[in-house]
Amino acid sequence: MSEKLERDIFSALSTTLENMAFMEVELEAEGAQTYPAEEILVSRLLIHDPIQGELYLGMPKLLLRKIASSVYIMPEEEISDQMVLDMVCELINTVAGLFLNAYLPGDQTYSLGLPEEITDGQEDSPFEMKRWNYQVDNDLFSLVLAGDGFFDS
Predict the structure, then answer these.
(1) Which domain, by its residues, includes 95?
(2) What is the pTM (predicted TM-score) of this model?
(3) Rounded to 10 degrees, what is the CA torsion of 110, 99, 141, 14?
(4) What CATH number did the domain enclosing 108 receive?
(5) Rounded CA gap, 142 and 78, in Å?
(6) What percent of the chain has pLDDT above 70?
(7) What per-residue confidence (pLDDT) applies to 121?
(8) HEC string of 90-114?
């Protein structure tokens, strides 16, 4: 796997969370808080062109509520479940755009689908997949990229 791919994925994710919610993304560290599947919200975004693939973002609902609270400037207890769902979809959309802008050649356009919620553990793709685990404020979350054209064989 290329260093550029790793760097572009991390840069897209960290830029998104730092710019939207002033939160620092770190690589997974020992002792990071994990959550049961029912406490994780997963969004999937299809990448149609020029490379077919999928991007999955799985985050604890608690972390998404913190992010939404920062973005909407509202107390966490006033953030609705719909706002949390909208947040994970907005995050994956922004991460995908930043990633593809950095990863593809400068003049290359791309086409994306619409973000959709899926059940945690249902990340399944006909393509080769790579998962990265990161943390924000000690809360572990994951980003998965699937697509044969992204990885060196």
Answers:
(1) 3-150
(2) 0.92
(3) -150
(4) 3.40.1550.10
(5) 26
(6) 97
(7) 67
(8) HHHHHHHHHHHHHHCCCCCCCEECC
